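The instructor's notes for this session suggest beginning with a concrete chain rather than abstract definitions. Hand out the sequence below and ask the class to guess, before any prediction is shown, which regions might be ordered.
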Amino acid sequence: MLKKHIEKTPVQVLLTPAYILITGKILAAISPFLASRFVARLFFSPFRYKLPNREKEMDEKSIQETINIPSISRKIVVYKYGTGPKKVLLVHGWSGSGTQLCVIAKELVNKGFSVISFDAPAHGKAPGKTSMMPFFIESIHHIEKEYGPFEAAIGHSLGGMSLLKAIKNGFRVNKLVLIGTGNSVTHITRVFVKNMKLSEKVAKLMKAYFDKKFGEDMDNYSGAFSAESVKVETLVVHDKNDVDARISSAYEIVDKLENGKLFVTEGLGHRKILGDPDVINKISTFISA
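After discussion, reveal the predicted structure:
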């Protein structure tokens, strides 16, 4: 697959085995209901990948410990990187890990901060096979109790949505950075099902199943909905060509923030944005100011 094509392809499409797509199509032909339950299970199943070379330095130099999150009965792996007095919490995205934001982490450590990050349940080195956004949020609250307070927090993709919801629920920081963060849960579920080559009907059935399972409208977890309660200074970083989280999400979130600023890039997509020098400088300057 050509590099340009890879950069324009959603992560879900890149990582999903062909047999999964075939199974989904067969189930959809039999019953959209069965297909919706099948993709719902997939929706909560992150992919794991071999640690990239760029993340090895942070992995080797950080102090790591596995801790239990009592509220969700799950374990996470916490990374402590640097020794500065002011702490910054980093939250990775779906199928990411605690070292995913390693370039940003290194720059912050060089500027005198210490960094705390973690492998969310079923991500990176953390045990488990399934995960979900509420697990990310509960992990953030527990980490604040154990390792806080935090000067700032940075979230990528689902990590950004989780931080917005956590702040709405009482997590405290002075500054927030969101990178490639999605907004509407309904839209996210529709895109997920579309990437699985399935119909809109399957997407609606899956969303309805989630609402019933969790006892609330899952759009209550949407980025813009949580952003209405976020008062801290926030930098929203998003690329025009992000195929995993549409650029309109950034505008929708900033519109609801009381003190939000938007920094738009072009040609970096959803993943390269995490290592771009201009983006790193913008974020580190924002947090240091």
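Then share the key points. The domain at 57-184+217-288 is CATH 3.40.50.1820 (Rossmann fold). Confidence is low (pLDDT under 50) at residues 1-6.
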